[in-house]
């Protein structure tokens, strides 16, 4: 009945803006009447939050359809894709990776999250243990933290010497150039989070038994070491951001928008087949995802 009245109302109106508003109302009603929308409303969620969640879920599914197309293109063309996720603790890296991968063929991708190096690995060429996990032809690999541990975590917490740090900073641009020159498609994300939001997420982890496993002794020091981490982060950007391997900054105080826009960036960056038929925009929001620039304001 409501839909019919809205349609009749549109027919008698010449104002384009008003017609757009009516169309938006119809879309909102459609979203609220979905299974997800009705469940959220039944739980007492506000109309605004319900609409935001339903539209996020719809957008995410459409983007995940595109990720499947991308994965098929990578497999069929024997491409090698490496996506690096870096950022402060609790910035949302793991949650983003989960949304990237949850609909993909598990035989054609890997998530790499390496633990502390063993005694043997500590004596090897620094990049050696990471090279063992580089993508094979037809495969996408997601690094949940990477060799950039040596750029920030290790010097901040005293896990490497000054000489080891300097050697790494000098070598990494050349090594990445070699990997890209060999045909690897590499994307480097930095998930940016404010100090206030990080503190809020740490508190949530402490109080949620399902998330307590995410906390580590290093995490608990992150707030105290904020300024020192900032110094090394800025050094990392300045010395390892290159034209062939740029840093892509993702504003991640809002987890959901960070997930959607980082997926959009990957989809827009890789020329896979069939993207012209996408049911959602593949252009990332420049207010959320942007290439690092040395004249940018402070990045958290």
From TrEMBL:
Its EC number is 2.7.4.-. Pfam families: PPK2. It comes from the Bacteria. It is an enzyme of class 2 (transferase). Transmembrane segments: none annotated. Keywords: Kinase, Transferase. One of its GO terms (molecular function) is polyphosphate kinase activity. GO terms for biological process: phosphorus metabolic process. Residues 52-277 form the Polyphosphate kinase-2-related domain. Belongs to the polyphosphate kinase 2 (PPK2) family. Class I subfamily. Uses inorganic polyphosphate (polyP) as a donor to convert GDP to GTP or ADP to ATP. Homotetramer. This is ADP/GDP-polyphosphate phosphotransferase. It comes from Hydrogenimonas thermophila.
